[in-house]
């Protein structure tokens, strides 16, 4: 298989995975953007709105709206940090419980999918994806054509 075809297949898989997260969110009665914010804060403990927007390629206004909703519900808080314009976000204790309840099914689906591949293949996939991402970032950030 030629390189261009392999890249097309890789991108198609990545886009399909994104679509599956959206489908899961909708089937669970949640907005995909809400799932994204909860997922990111659960995985990384603390992030800014801008960081989530950048990492997930979502509009800042979308993230801002979700953050307001979750903050009003008592599920997250903005942390004051001296000298920082943008406040980091953290899940509250009730937010952690809410996230565990709401995202538990998603996490179990991820675990079953990884188990279907086998631990060794899953680890190899993660490592190879990381290596490609690092090499691609070097090409792009160091002045690609």
Characterise the protein shown here:
By secondary structure, the chain is mainly alpha-helical. It has a single domain (3-141), classed as Arc Repressor Mutant, subunit A (Orthogonal Bundle), CATH 1.10.10. Helix content is 74%, strand content 6%. The protein contains six helices and three strands. The chain has helices at 3-27, 32-44, 49-56, 60-72, 93-117, 119-141, and strands at 46-47, 76-78, 89-91. It has a three-stranded antiparallel sheet with strand order 1-3-2. The model has no long low-confidence stretch (mean pLDDT 95).
Quick description:
Helices cover 74% and strands 6% of the residues. The protein has six helices and three strands.
Task: Chart the SSEs and their pairings.
Elements: H1 3-27, H2 32-44, E1 46-47, H3 49-56, H4 60-72, E2 76-78, E3 89-91, H5 93-117, H6 119-141
Antiparallel strand pairs: 1-3, 2-3
Helix pairs in contact: 3-4
Keywords:
Arc Repressor Mutant, subunit A, three-stranded antiparallel β-sheet, 3 strands, 145 residues, single chain, mainly alpha
């Amino acid at each position: 298989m030629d390189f261009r075809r392999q890249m097309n297949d890789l991108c198609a898989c990545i886009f399909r995975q994104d679509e599956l997260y959206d489908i899961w969110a909708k089937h669970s009665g949640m907005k995909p953007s809400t799932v994204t914010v909860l997922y990111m804060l659960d995985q990384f403990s603390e992030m800014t709105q801008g960081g989530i927007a950048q990492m997930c390629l979502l509009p800042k206004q979308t993230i801002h709206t979700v953050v307001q909703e979750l903050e009003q519900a008592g599920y997250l808080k903005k942390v004051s940090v001296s000298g920082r314009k943008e406040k980091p976000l953290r899940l509250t204790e009730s937010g952690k419980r809410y996230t565990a309840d709401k995202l538990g099914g998603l996490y179990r689906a991820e675990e079953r999918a990884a188990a279907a591949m086998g631990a060794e293949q899953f680890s190899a996939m993660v490592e190879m994806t990381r290596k490609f991402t690092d090499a691609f970032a070097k090409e792009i950030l160091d002045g690609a054509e």
